[in-house]
Each structure stands twice: as structure tokens, then as C-alpha cells.
Amino acid sequence: MTITQAISRCDAAKPNQYIHSEKIRWLSSLDGMIFNEIIKAHEGADAVEFDGYTEETDSSTVLLVPEPYSDLYLYYMFSMIDFHNAEYARYNNSISMFNNAFENFAAHYNRRHPPLQNNSIRL
């Protein structure tokens, strides 16, 4: 899923007043967390590049999480919209859906990529 696809799908499913640059910031924050907490903890992390997204980032940039797990981007943006609108019952539902999707992706990534080993011996 690209930045444009994620934002377009979010806006189609949940019309909102938040500007494009704010949604890019949310996506950047989420991919930063995914990169730091999941990808960098596994072998092959050096093959993945992530420097964050800004308004200057090409909107066709592919986000870090592949299909079929990429709906987590939508759930995250839904939860941010609900939170900032002070719609806390909706936020709770959206963040629960996000957490479930995030856990599914993390489990998938953990199965496919060996964790980094720290084999140092301390004396």
C-alpha cells in the first residue's frame, strides 16, 4: 500500500477534516514504530530503508507493512481521527482493531525473519 492509497482509503471509509500532511505524519510515526520495534530487531533490517515521511515524500512510496496486513494503516488513522475528535467509544474500537492487526503483522514478521542474536558473553 502506498501513502496515497492509505490516505485515500481512509478518507473514503471515514470522511474527516484532517489535512493530508497530518495523515502523512501519522503514517510516518506508525512506520517509524514498526521499523524500530519490529524490523530493526531482526536479521535483514539493513535491507530496509526508512527515514520518515514528509509532504515532500513521493506519495507513491510503498509503506513498510505488506498485504494482507496493510489494513493496520487504516485502523491506525481511524483511531487517530476518533481520538482527536474526542469520540472515545469509536477510538476504543478502532485502536482494538489496530492492535489486533499490528499483532498479526508482528507475528508474521517474527515467523519469517530470524531475530538478531546477541551472543556476547559477559564476565
Main attributes of the structure:
123 residues, mainly alpha, 4 helices, 0% strand
Contiguous helical run count: 4
Helix content: 55-70%
Distance between the termini: 47 Å
State the low-pLDDT regions, or none.
Answer: none
Quick description:
The chain has 123 residues and is mostly helical. The chain has one domain.
Mind explaining what this structure looks like?
The chain is 55% helix and 0% strand. It has 123 residues and is mainly α. The longest helix is centred in the C-terminal third of the chain and has 25 residues, at 88-112. It is globular, with a radius of gyration of 16 Å. The termini are far apart.
Secondary-structure blueprint:
Blueprint: H1 3-13, H2 20-37, H3 71-84, H4 88-112
